């Protein structure tokens, strides 16, 4: 009997060691096993088993911290219509202040139309602490507007768009917002992961030169997006930024960009890609994967060989794009009642002088 117990103990300890090693844990780290919690109806919900330590209160799932008496809205909730997030919830005769949202709190909730965030909600948390993931409403395709209490100390909203309180970080442009044009406010320096993703209405986006970084998937699945006027100070374009942008045929990337993430343009029909910068650290092998081979790249003469190492299609010098600018601009911008510069970038105000394209025609003032 002692031998059997000893063998069982050895197997158990070995399993724990294997688990902790596979999870990247060091000796002495705490191991927490999450278990389901019975919800207020007395029945255990499947979501409790899947997400661990969550409880259902008035139709939303929360993680409760009994030490601080705070509650965080847990991942993957479903809601229909407008939602007023409460400042406080009650559970087992205890009050909890609602102080945060997990980063996928309403991910792919297709029936949520409007959200009001109270002053108590001060954080959006990613399970691994990734500060780029600040859009808890990703793929909420009916969500038209986000409102934030004016006295919230860490977030605010401007015309239904979610920002950090100081308006330097853009968290979420609602996927159901129906405006075709959007100008990112001056002063924004960072646009978060999936910030515009899945919005099928947005056609043109203009960025101020204050923007220096685009996180992953910023415009992923924006099916109507035709032009993006990028900041001339942006240095990094994250992974999947222009994934599945089905109407984007031309993109001009300023010389300030010196680094790309992976699969930036995958499954998008881009035909002309103008890349003006240099890449002293080289290019990733996976930046231009899952693109058509008929895309024409225009790059610096000194960068042609670097691009040919990672892309099998046509790579030409920037000077060639300049000489063919009329044909390229008219073809790739696609005709429409709007003004563009000769790089194909939409202009929110008609130029007072110079050369530009209006409704598909070249204009000179």
The total of beta strands comes to 27
- Strand ordering within the main sheet: 10-11-12-14-16-18-20
Low-pLDDT segments, ≥5 res: 16-52, 323-337
- Structural category is alpha/beta
The first-to-last residue Cα distance is 96 Å
Portion of residues in beta strands equals 25-35%
* Biggest beta sheet summary: 7 strands, mixed
Q: Radius of gyration over alpha carbons?
A: 25 Å
Overall geometry: elongated
Instruction: Report the average pLDDT across residues.
Output: 83
In helices, the fraction of residues equals 10-25%
Number of helices: 5
What features would you describe in this structure?
- This protein is of the alpha/beta class and 365 residues long.
- Helix content is 13%, strand content 28%.
- It has helices at 2-22, 46-51, 304-310, 318-323, 325-333; strands at residues 54-57, 60-65, 70-73, 81-84, 88-91, 94-102, 112-117, 123-125, 145-148, 155-158, 161-164, 169-172, 181-183, 190-191, 204-206, 213-214, 227-229, 236-237, 250-253, 259-260, 272-275, 296-299, 314-317, 339-340, 346-347, 355-358, 361-364.
- Strand 22 (296-299), helix 3 and strand 23 form a beta-alpha-beta unit.
- The protein is elongated and about 70 Å long.
List the helices and strands and how they pair.
Elements: H1 2-22, H2 46-51, E1 54-57, E2 60-65, E3 70-73, E4 81-84, E5 88-91, E6 94-102, E7 112-117, E8 123-125, E9 145-148, E10 155-158, E11 161-164, E12 169-172, E13 181-183, E14 190-191, E15 204-206, E16 213-214, E17 227-229, E18 236-237, E19 250-253, E20 259-260, E21 272-275, E22 296-299, H3 304-310, E23 314-317, H4 318-323, H5 325-333, E24 339-340, E25 346-347, E26 355-358, E27 361-364
Parallel strand pairs: 3-6, 4-7, 6-8, 7-9, 12-14, 13-15, 14-16, 15-17, 16-18, 18-20, 19-21, 21-22, 22-23
Antiparallel strand pairs: 1-2, 2-3, 5-6, 10-11, 11-12, 24-25, 24-26, 26-27
